[in-house]
Amino acid sequence: MQSHKMNHANPGIKCQVQSCYYYMTGDQCTADCIEVLPKDANSTSETDCGTFTKKQ
Fold this sequence. Notes:
Layout: E1 23-24, E2 28-29, E3 36-37, E4 48-49
Antiparallel strand pairs: 1-2, 3-4
């Protein structure tokens, strides 16, 4: 899945990963869509944001 950066926050998505390209001040995400992986996770500790892209 390819995400695109929006110039505003995506409502309802909270992100605290300040090193992510899509991070916006106030713990918000500017990705137009996100992917949460892996599909066989059984708890929140087993999940990851597949949309994460390191900020340069």
